[in-house]
Amino acid sequence: MRLFVAIVPPAPALAELTAAVDLLRLRAPDLRWTTRQAWHLTLAFLGEVQEPSVPELSVRLERAARRHPPQQLAIAGGGAFPAAARAQVLWTGFSADDQALAALAASVAAGARRAGAPPPDEHRKYRPHLTLARCKKPTDVSGLTRELSDFTGSRWVADSIHLVRSYLTSGPPEYEDVGSWPLTGYRRSST
Question: Which of the chain's ends, N or C, has fewer CB atoms near its CB within 10 Å?
Fold first, then answer.
């Protein structure tokens, strides 16, 4: 089964992003735009995982979630991979405590590795983003990234992580929530 671990933004945050993205869709109809139902912040892409590994993976993800506090996030800005002038992916980013979010992603990846489901891109620098569109061929999306640079949504609290199964179809992928765990850790006081 094809799995990833993610944070799912709440409906009000997605509604704000939808309003901004609808204008961009009109300007770039040739891009393969993702649907609002597919929008998420990936913490770790696991790829193909054998079903017998899922119970242990669930235990490890629950432990990781327990170690980290809820995250204060806002959807903000945008960019493209590998670069705006020759993009394959158009994305929006997140305003967050980058260190805390990266620590959560690393903890999730470590738990997956211990459960026998190591993320294939585990050693890449973590870059929190939400995929908005894919390009059929490398495309200059500089104008779109400039427009996204001014976007900042309202702040919200991410209080859980989700293990999600991805089904590849002839159209957009379909997602199924396999499990979720609350972020219950507490920040240590600096006093």
Answer: C
